[in-house]
Amino acid sequence: MFKQISILAVVALIFFSLGFYTGTKDEKIASVLNNNNQLDTFQAGWDAAKDRLVETGFVPFMETDEITSVEGEVINVENNKIELKIRPLEPLSDPDLDQRTIKVSENTKIYKLEEKDNAEYEKEMNEFNQRMQAQMENPELAEPMEPPDFFLKKETDLSVINVGDQLTAVAKENIKNTKEFEALEIIVQPTPGQ
Q1: Phi, psi for residue 25 in degrees, rounded to 5
Q2: CA distances from residue 177 to 6, 90, 116 in whole angstroms, order as listed
C-alpha cells in the first residue's frame, strides 16, 4: 500500500512539472490564475496531473460521469440523517466528498442483510448447479441465471443503523459530486460475528 502511494506521489509530481512547463506562456498564466488573479501553480499542476493520469490510464480506475450509489462506514446518525465515510470514488477525487450526508425520508426503504441458514443456502446452491448443468447439456435452452444470494434482505427502519455499520445508499439522481442527498434505498451490511 505504501509503495502504491509513493508511486502515485512521484507520478503526480512528474505530471505536475509537465503540466506547468508545457504550453505557451500565456496559456500557462491563464490556467494558473486563481479568483484573486494570483498565480496558483500547485492547483494547475495538480489538475494537469489528474488529467494526464486519466488520459494515459496509468492509474487503474474508471472515471464515470454518473454515480447513483455510495458505500461506506456510518460515522453519525441523527435527525433522519446519516453521516457516511465512503471510500473515494476515484483515487484523485475531491477529499471533501469522502464524507456524505444521507437524508432519510418516509420514501426511503431501509434493508438489513442477514445471513441465510447454511442448510437453506446449500440447498439453493445445489438447485442452481443442477440448472446450470442442464443448460450446459442443452445450450439452446440456456437463459441468464444468477446464483442464489447468501443474504436475506429484510426491511427495517432507521433505528437499526449504528455508528460503525457498513452500508450502501442508493439515490435517484447522480450523486458523484453531491455532498448531501436523499436516499431511495439503504442497505445495511451484516455485522461480522452476528
Answers
A1: -60, -45
A2: 27, 12, 36
